[in-house]
Amino acid sequence: MAFSRVPLSRAPLCRHSYLSSLLPFSFSHLTLSLLPNRTRLNNLSASLSTQEPAPSIDSSSANPKQSNRWKPMCLYFTQGKCTMMNDPIHLEKFNHNCSGELKVSSPTVKQTRSQQLDFFLVLDLEGKVEILEFPVLMLDAKTMDVVDMFHRFVRPSAMSEQRINEYIEGKYGKIGVDRVWHDTAIPFEEVIQQFEAWMVQHDLLGKELNGRLSRAAFVTCGNWDLKTKVPQQCEVSRMVLPPYFMEWINLKDIYLNFYKRRATGMITMMKELQIPLVGSHHLGIDDTKNIARVLQHMLADGALLKITARRNPGNPENVEFFFRNRIR
Ligand SMILES: [Zn+2]
User: Fold this and answer.
1) Which key words are in the record (predicted)?
2) C-beta of residue 44 within 8 angstroms of C-beta of residue 83
3) How far is the CA of 69 from the centre of ligand 1 (A)?
4) In angstroms, what is the span from residue 82 Cα to ligand 1's centroid?
5) pLDDT in tens, 102-156
6) Residue 302 domain-assigned?
């Protein structure tokens, strides 16, 4: 299901475009100070693409001439690094607003049940050997709107340059985003520092909770992301597993217990719920949006999202699962 994304041009990086163009929040010096000071950013290419619009759940996509038709995200923008916000051709080709395509109609919102959490953090990591991409979509549990997005490409820390190049070519070359990956990827420790600053901005980390999430929970498709991959990467990157990664919601468990049907993965859930796949499968940010679409559909159907797995604080190796019926 991969579409081609082909980098076509280069542009010098101008950092203010990041801050002025990003998101409707007052981004503070905190984030600014965490921006990596990397000279290689002077040679960023714009993430241009030859990709044709794909089917979308948004009815406005029926007319491809409309400017709000589906288009690929600018993957510099998602990481706060787009320098072409003043270029109309670039803006026409690439999406710079992640909330539009995940908009849910208000009659749908009215029929949802109330949730125990205020926000869902949909997370879908990419990278089997080491994490290569860390995308998070923050959804409001009541309105189902996208509140914000955090997206970073991640540079492996225990791999040779040659291995990294082969790895990226094989994974992202196919969908034409290898160039933007090389231009923007930063080590996992830096990603986590920036992610924490982002969570603080959104008031998601409760001080009284010792770094655990307040009012929000991660939503993943399966247990792999937080049970296996993040702890592995923390070990490779010589970090302690942050407390906010100690519990999560596995959407597949909620799906099984709500619809009484097993779903082996995102594609199965999307097929069964008749949600069209949008974007490039295995591009983390696109998969995250597709999982968010499944989540929105389930919320609209009346599902209650609850924590499905939690690590034992005294013995973090031990994960307790809360549903008897679950996907193993
Ligand atoms: Zn852009």
Assistant:
1) Exonuclease, Hydrolase, Nuclease
2) yes
3) 16
4) 4
5) 888 777 776 678 899 999 999 999 999 999 999 999 999 999 999 999 999 999 9
6) yes
